[in-house]
Automatic annotation (TrEMBL):
InterPro entries: HotDog_dom_sf, MaoC-like_dom, UPF0336/Enoyl-CoA_hydratase. Residues 16-117 form the MaoC-like domain. GO terms for molecular function: (3R)-hydroxyacyl-[acyl-carrier-protein] dehydratase activity. One of its GO terms (biological process) is fatty acid biosynthetic process. The gene is maoC. This is MaoC-like protein.
């Protein structure tokens, strides 16, 4: 998927509609997220420290991965008319630098009265392992 924004109105949103995109999590992303968030936990930033943990190497910030859900909602599903209301998250498996991940959103419900859609959100690695999942509530503005 490219960075061209999707423009959908409420009537175009269908239950089961799905959008996804793939990215590679880079060292630059990890460093940028640490600088932006202020989270310099050695599990993310210090290779020597991380090699002595059960992960055996540095892991990416869970919230770095979750930040890609903003791109999913704001750019692709539903896109331009989205107003993020809420997002639940559950972290299942670690992500490492240079992992290829897929960010997926699927419409599971929509409310005609409120124009709020509910998305199942999932982030998986290239092996298909679930890294993060949750549920997003998004208001579709007219």
């Amino acid at each position: 998927m490219n960075d061209e924004i999707t423009v959908l109105d409420f009537s175009q949103i269908k239950i089961g509609m799905e959008k996804k995109f793939r990215i590679v999590v880079t060292e630059y992303m990890l460093e940028s997220f640490a600088n932006l968030s202020g989270d310099y936990n050695p599990l993310h930033m210090n290779e020597n420290y991380a090699t002595n943990t059960s992960f055996r190497k540095r892991i990416c910030h869970g919230m770095l991965l979750s930040s890609f859900l903003s791109r999913l909602v704001g750019m692709y599903l539903p896109g331009q008319n989205a107003l993020y209301i809420s997002q639940s998250l559950k972290f299942h498996s670690p992500c490492f630098v240079n992992d290829k991940i897929t960010i997926i959103g699927k419409v599971v419900s929509k409310s005609e009265s409120t124009h709020i859609i509910t998305l199942k959100t999932i982030i998986v690695n290239e092996s298909g392992n679930c890294l993060v999942d949750g549920e997003a509530k998004v208001l579709l503005r007219e």
